[in-house]
Amino acid sequence: MFGPNVMGRVVALLLALVLLTACGGGSGSQPASTPSPAAAGNVLGVIVDAGPSGAGYNVNRLYTTVKVCQPDGGLCKVIDHVLVDTGSTGLRLLSSALGSSVGLPRILGKAGLPLLNCAQFVDATYAWGPVVTSDLILGGQAALLVPIQIIADREFDTAPGSCAAGGTAITDVKSLGANGILGLGLFKEDCGSGCGSNVHNGFYYTCTDPSCAATTGAIAALSQQVRNPVSSFASDNNGVVIELPPVGAAGLSNLTGSLIFGVGTQSNNQMAPGSVVLFGDAWGYVSTLLGGTNQPNNFARSFFDTGSNGLFFDSATIQLCAQSQDFYCPASTLALSATLVGANAAKASVGLAISDATPLFTDGSKSAFPGLAGPIGESSIFDFGLPFFYGRRVAIGLAGRSSSLGTGPYYAF
């Protein structure tokens, strides 16, 4: 993990890149367009499909459309196929997707030079680029004067070593599998109060001179940090509810669902009676006790992350794929039982099915595959990626914001 607010990976182990090599031709079909926002003002349509043009073959990627505007009623641009990621915080757009038609004002560091942001993800990728101010329209909701990150801006193309740290830079739609990342996780800012006092925080940097030939660590006030746009809504601002249809074991070519803003604020974002509410610890984690694999693992750092395309946890007994050591390929579908425990001692028992991922390396037609899983490389982590969300209604409660379910951070389903 790379900090309390960057808990999940944007693309768990970048399945898009693995399959681009293995399948060949997966990018030949035209992906479905992201859906128009639903009629209700607090609902944004989401879709799982093959991804934007040029992204190759993608599996279990949840996309939506955002409208990005210059502050105070300026020019706007609609950007589709933005990855919905409940494991990170804030909107991050590829510079190539935003283009030059909508100029957004840069946020400056203490010395009056551009403030730069580094977001590191557990698949060893990182996003680097300047922080700018934008007005955002998500469905019928507006978030004004929100700091966002522009990824791979050519004016700032060299990340410091502390950001790159042996990882791979996200530079274009092919390396990301999307046009951007919409981080709707548990926290309001991507770093928090620590970045307001500690220069060497690992998240924020600034140029050392106007040419930006080099950078140095920088403090960033909460008002300057890349922010979860939901926290800036005038209403429906205490979290989100994600609702997706079930997916059969064989998978689907695409599916649509809903991203609903607010938890318990309107009739359409209520949770059903009897829903379990798992409060996260100070870092947002819950615990998972996993059975069925002959290992008494207690995954103390567990989280729910639509930005990950599988269920990711380490197992000494589940067979890895011959085509890729990044995914599991059991001889037959493996049924596991898991007990999730929140910081409030609430418990939820869930069943998990791990399927052989081999068909994905030969058949590029399935964009939704519920049994995809793989190792994560850390014995204490369980990443409940997008497959967990299929057939469920899941609430993500923002830290410090109250609802009928309690005060976040929490997960409910």
Description:
With 413 residues, this protein is mainly beta. Helix content is 6%, strand content 34%. The protein has helices at residues 15-23, 95-98, 161-164, 173-176, 386-389, and strands spanning 43-48, 62-69, 76-85, 89-94, 115-120, 125-138, 141-151, 168-169, 180-184, 204-207, 215-217, 239-243, 255-261, 277-279, 286-291, 298-304, 311-313, 334-341, 347-354, 373-374, 381-384, 393-397, 402-403, 406-407, 410-412. The strands form 3 sheets. A 7-stranded mixed beta sheet has the order 19-18-15-16-21-17-20. Residues 1-38 have low confidence and may be disordered.
Run of helices and strands:
HEEEEHEEEHEHEEEEEEEEEEEEEHEEEE
Biggest sheet: strand arrangement: 19-18-15-16-21-17-20
How much is the average pLDDT? Answer: 89
Q: Work out the helicity level.
A: under 10%
> Based on the structure given, which CATH architecture of the largest domain is correct?
Beta Barrel
Count of individual domains: 2
The CATH homologous superfamily of the largest domain: Acid Proteases
Shape: globular
Count every beta strand, where a strand is a DSSP E run of 2 or more residues: 25
Q: Helix/strand-derived class?
A: mainly beta
Q: Which spans have pLDDT < 50 for at least 5 consecutive residues?
A: 1-38
